[in-house]
Every structure is written in structure tokens, then in C-alpha cells.
Amino acid sequence: MNGNLMIKSVVENDMCIGCGLCAAQCKSDAIQMKMNQFGFYTANVDDSYAIGEEIVNVCPFNPNPEGKVKTENEIAALFLNQADKNHKKIGRYINTYAGYSIKHRPTSSSGGIATYTLIELMRRGEIQHVISVKAGSNTAHYEYMVSSSIDEITNAAKTKYYPVTLADALKTVTKLNGKIAIVGVACFIKAIRLAQVHDPIFNDKVGFLIGIICGGVKSAFFAEYLSSKTGVTVDEFTHPEFRIKDINSTASDYSYGCVDKDENQKTIKMRLVGDMWGTGLFKANACDYCDDVTTELADLSLGDAWLEPYSTDGRGTSVLVTRSNLAEDIIKAGMANGELVIDDLPEERFLASQQGSFNHRHDGLAYRIKVGKTPLNAIPPKRFTHTSLSPLLKIIHRLRMATRQNSLLVWANGKDSQVFDHQMQRNLYWLKFFTRANHYQRAIIRRLKKVLSK
């Protein structure tokens, strides 16, 4: 398959995640990143230009990767050989922690560790620039931008559940003096590593990668829906903010906020909206075929500490996975000088903090590959393809796939949250029903095991 056809196959089969590495690596404008009808960035290819293999090879969802670099396992062996531990679900790593930055926690979505680390990297001279997501124009809301000072890094804090692409920001890399750090979710980090494999000049520019543990890339529809729930129409909201903490409540009790046309901020508690993650609402199809839960290819992986006692603290706490000596040294130094409050987190506790994602992304992967509408020849090589599910879990995974797809179709046809909620009611009811039944079943099995073990 030539480069043009491969990229088109990825796009047409809803496997393009919009990272934009193909466009960034292309020396012309033959590949443009544009938002499609369902609110995702995808690659648009000019047929008059022959896309070469060097560009195809950076696609994280290339169904036919070149040579021995097939999965995250082989890529990690190239870049993370300082990590002395290796777990099939966590990847290569040095240590796992939970904690926060005293200074940056109040202005961050979680523990402020990403901001702290990036500032330390710049202070040490390890990097001179950071590419991360910042507020863009009112139409784009958010976009990847270059920060070249500590003040600019600080202004880029907080999580943004909004589609972005690296294409434009990475095209400036060769013009920047010094090394860069990049912040991204798993598929973006994989694309960057692939570009490092195939482009020595780009490889020399990358000094550090921070991976954000991701529950799935959301469509622009997600922000539109939440804004509509606050009472602001989709064509009038600006400044969407996805993680407004309630420091007097729990970590999960956060709000969404946006600004209306009269410059008034409108907010809504996410618990009033309902489950937006386990249901797969507004999620990209490609995310259902991603088996990298912990951003395995980053120097430092960060996520929310969804386990006790951290989850009861509304100020936010991060889980951390260090995968390079530099990442480990920054965290250890921050602990020693009192700037970071960090607990050692045993491996099994870290796994528990992301258990829901492991259950969906790993345990259900083989079944989704089997019954999903995505053609088998469009799916890259995967590592967790020998799992089996109970009949009840098979129903749940089918319902999740249908809910994900229907949410995009319904919102595209009428962007009003009340209409959407009504039309999605049946999907969500049955998904909730069978999910609850599965919880009861697991609880009964656990009790039986305890009785039989006595």
C-alpha cells in the first residue's frame, strides 16, 4: 500500500487520531489537518503528491508498521532502556508514585507534577522549549503551542479534553534553538517516538516527553454538549474549562465551565451530567483499539490518583511513573527539597488506580477487534488479543461501541443537550443496567470465593 492510500485508509476507517505527525513530517502542504464532521482532526491528503514511507512510518495507527518496531514494546526498548522494571500493563519503568507539587497543585487539574517537571527541566537547561496545549483562538479553543519561558509554561497548566493536533507546532521545531519537551496522550507520544526512530534530526531535538494517562480522546462535541448543559448554545461559548476543582469535596467532584456571549462564566458539576467516560460518549473510534493505558513511551507518565485516600482530596493528586533516569532524578530532587509531596506507590496500587481503563482497553480489546466495524486490515498489531469475556461483559462492550458511535451521530444532527439526552436515553439505560448487573455478579463471585477459601 502506498503512502497516500495508507493514510486515507487510516482516516476512512476512523483510526486517525489527529496527532498530525504525518503533516509535520511532510515537507510540503500535501497533508492538511482538518476537523471532520464529527469534531475530530483528521489528515487530508493531496493525491497529486506522493506520500513517502518516511511519513507513513510516523503514524501511530499504521496497520503495517515497518521492520521490527511493531508495538510499544519494541519502541520502549529503544528509548527507555534505563528502566529496570517491566510490567506487561505498565510498560518499562523505574518507579511508581503518588503525590503533588506544593506550588503548582492549586492551578492544575490534578497534582501539578507536569508543570513542576517542565519548569525544572528548563531551569536545569535540559530543554529550552515546551510544546503543550494552551488556550487558542475562540474558534479553536485550544491548540498546541510553543512555550519558551517559565511564565509561559505556567500558563499552560490544566487538562483540556478537546481535540488538538501537533502538526503546526512541530513544523517550527527545526527553527528552535535547543531541545524541546512535549506533553501528550499515548497515541501522540507514540507518534513522536516513531518520528524519532525515523528522523535523526527530529530525534536530536526531543529532550523529554511527558505522557498524560488518557481515558480516550474526545470530540469537539464534548465541549459543545457540556456548554449546552450549562445553558450556553454551541455557537456562543468560549473558554471551555474541563476540570474546575472543588477543594472542599472529592477529586472526582469537579465542574465544567465556559463563558457565554455576555462574558459570564457558566458552570455545571460533572456528577450532574452523568458518566462521560465509562460510556464512551463522544470518544474517538481509534481509542477502542489502543492498548497503551499508561502512556508507556514517555519519560514521565502522569494521571489522576483514582484510589483512596487520594481520591477524597479535592485539591488533586497525581499518579506518576518514572521511565528515565532524568525523570526519576527530578522527582527525587523535588521530594528532597520539599517542593513535592510524594508517596511511594506499590505496583499493585498503581494498577488499581487505573483498573477501569485496564478492564476496558486490555480485557475487551480482542472482542472489540472481533465484532467491531473497523476492518481487521486497518488495525495495527496489538498486544492484548488473547483475552476472553463473560457473556455479560460482551453485551457491555457491544453497548459501549454503539453508545460511542450513536453519540457522535445524534449530536451531529442536532446540537442541543436536551434533545441529545432524550435520543441517547435508551442506549445509556441499557448500558447502565448491564454494567450494574456485572458489578453485582462480580460481588457475588468475590463473596463465594471468600466462603470457599475458609
From TrEMBL:
Pfam families, A to Z: Fer4 (PF00037), FrhB_FdhB_C (PF04432), FrhB_FdhB_N (PF04422)
Domain 4Fe-4S ferredoxin-type: 7-36
Any one GO molecular-function label of the UniProt entry: oxidoreductase activity, acting on CH or CH2 groups, with an iron-sulfur protein as acceptor
InterPro entries listed in its UniProt record: 4Fe4S_Fe-S-bd, Co_F420_Hydgase/DH_bsu_N, FRHB/FDHB/HCAR-like, FrhB_FdhB_C
Domain of life where this protein originates: Bacteria
Protein name, per record: Coenzyme F420-reducing hydrogenase subunit beta
Organism: Shewanella algae
UniProt lineage: Bacteria, Pseudomonadati, Pseudomonadota, Gammaproteobacteria, Alteromonadales
